[in-house]
UniProtKB/TrEMBL annotation:
<keyword id="KW-0378">Hydrolase</keyword>
<dbReference type="InterPro" id="IPR014219">
    <property type="entry name" value="SpoIVB"/>
</dbReference>
<dbReference type="InterPro" id="IPR009003">
    <property type="entry name" value="Peptidase_S1_PA"/>
</dbReference>
<dbReference type="InterPro" id="IPR008763">
    <property type="entry name" value="Peptidase_S55"/>
</dbReference>
<protein>
    <submittedName>
        <fullName>SpoIVB peptidase</fullName>
        <ecNumber>3.4.21.116</ecNumber>
    </submittedName>
</protein>
<keyword id="KW-0645">Protease</keyword>
<dbReference type="Pfam" id="PF13180">
    <property type="entry name" value="PDZ_2"/>
</dbReference>
<dbReference type="GO" id="GO:0016787">
    <property type="term" value="F:hydrolase activity"/>
</dbReference>
<keyword id="KW-0720">Serine protease</keyword>
<dbReference type="Pfam" id="PF05580">
    <property type="entry name" value="Peptidase_S55"/>
</dbReference>
<dbReference type="InterPro" id="IPR001478">
    <property type="entry name" value="PDZ"/>
</dbReference>
<feature type="domain" description="Peptidase S55">
    <location>
        <begin position="182"/>
        <end position="421"/>
    </location>
</feature>
<dbReference type="InterPro" id="IPR036034">
    <property type="entry name" value="PDZ_sf"/>
</dbReference>
Length: 423
């Protein structure tokens, strides 16, 4: 019965750890009709109810207001009647962080950090046998060829000269490949294809990928951006592409194929101003692509940076997304965050969202391909990005927390360790 009381439920919801940006306030409500003594080991970092004292009494019936004053960690301990330990909350204060939300549709052109194997090809030999030298060498789909005969290789067009020379000399190629994070050496002997009258290695290979997505944020103080909200994989092997370079450019939405149950739609777009690069591509992670961006991107709704939210701040309820459905115009549309998953470590699919804006549903049917990366805003803060659509219900989909994208962008959200004081 005690567990069902509002006071106990308020106590149970009190976290063991809180995170605040500098200058941010947070109210904790216990609604317990008792007095307690609060002790803060670093009141210069966190103030309780505006007090700079280490210890004082308060009434737990009233909300407790925490105000972050400087970067670091502080422990707040509560004792009932000044004697009985009730709760200790660790408060981590990190530097204030604001970014400019995106929403712009971008073209993505990415080079892999080697030559990606996407298939096996059969070579017709002089005795009319059909074999794949690459398959015989036990090269697998998704393998990344990073060196040929000790030379770095990233361009498909540069593979043929190595193959022809090795074939004419009757020597095997020495390939350095990476597979599942490990590197290995493989020998592959080209074979003469009587149909093509040329030497072949029996592999389908690719060195780049291109597509359309949405810019999530631009951090002007750090000069970096984040986009897409999910990893870019090769369309044939479904393996993540290891970045060897690339760039993002402006894109113009020309039309939209609407999503239907069982069939996700897509934005149809073409790249603009290919000579004007918005940013480079340095990372391709489970939370999107990241790189440097030196100037504020054009066509955005927000010219000023806004606060970001920690994962634990995101609540079920109304929110908005920013995206483009025509041309280059970024617009806001109403959504509902219908479920949040508490995540202490980075993980995808942090929230389930549902499109509630009738105009967006009429235009797109819900979430479509190319909308991934669209920023999610709640209560004036950037909280996440759209990542996937639910195929059987295109009005619903998943989002990731912005915190994980910011970490992958190299923007630190961890508190600075407290330095011990000399005595």
């Amino acid at each position: 019965m005690a567990c069902a009381t509002p006071s106990f439920q308020s106590y149970a919801s009190l976290p063991d750890e809180l995170r605040l940006f500098t200058g941010q306030n947070r109210d904790l409500s216990l609604a317990m009709p008792v007095h307690a003594r609060v002790t803060v080991d670093h009141p210069e970092i966190v103030q309780v109810n505006g007090e700079s004292r280490h210890s004082f009494d308060l009434n737990l019936k009233n909300p407790i207001t925490l105000k972050s004053a400087s970067i670091g960690q502080a422990d707040m301990q509560l004792k009932l009647f000044g004697k009985i330990p009730l709760k200790t909350v660790r408060v981590n204060v990190v530097p204030d962080l604001k970014v400019i939300p995106g929403g712009q549709t971008i073209g993505v052109k990415m080079k892999s950090a080697g030559i990606l194997v996407v298939g096996h090809h059969l070579v017709t030999t002089a005795d009319h046998q059909k074999v794949s030298p690459g398959e015989q060498a036990k090269i697998q789909l998704g393998d990344l060829i990073v060196k040929i005969n000790g030379d770095d290789i990233r361009d498909v067009a540069k593979v043929a000269p190595y193959v022809n020379e090795a074939g004419k000399e009757g020597k095997p190629l020495k390939l350095t490949i990476t597979r599942n994070g490990s590197t290995r050496e493989v020998e592959l002997k080209p074979m003469f294809d009587v149909n093509d009258q040329s030497y072949r290695i029996g592999l389908y290979i690719r060195d780049s990928a291109a597509g359309v997505g949405t810019l999530t944020f631009y951090a002007p103080d750090q000069g970096v951006y984040g986009a897409l909200g999910h990893v870019i994989t090769d369309m044939d092997t479904q393996t993540p592409i290891v970045v060897g370079g690339g760039e993002i450019v402006h894109s113009n939405v020309t039309s939209i194929a609407k999503s239907q149950n069982g069939e996700p739609g897509e934005k149809r777009a073409h790249l603009l101003n290919e000579g004007k690069v918005l940013g480079n591509i340095e990372k391709n992670t489970p939370f999107g692509i990241f790189g440097k961006m030196t100037d504020m991107p054009e066509h955005g709704l927000n010219r000023e940076a806004i606060p970001v939210a920690f994962a634990e701040e995101v609540k079920e309820g109304p929110a908005e997304i920013m995206t483009v459905i025509d041309g280059q115009k970024v617009e806001k549309f109403a959504i509902e965050i219908v479920h949040v998953t508490r995540q202490d470590v980075p993980a995808t699919k942090g929230m389930v969202i549902r499109i509630t804006d009738s105009r967006l549903i009429e235009k797109t049917g819900g979430i479509v391909q190319g909308m991934s990366g669209s920023p999610i805003l709640q209560n004036g803060k950037l909280v996440g990005a759209v990542t996937h659509v639910l195929v059987n219900d295109p009005t619903s989909g998943y989002g990731c927390y912005i915190e994980w994208m910011l970490r992958d962008a190299g923007i630190v959200l961890e508190p600075t360790a407290i330095q011990p004081q000399a005595s």
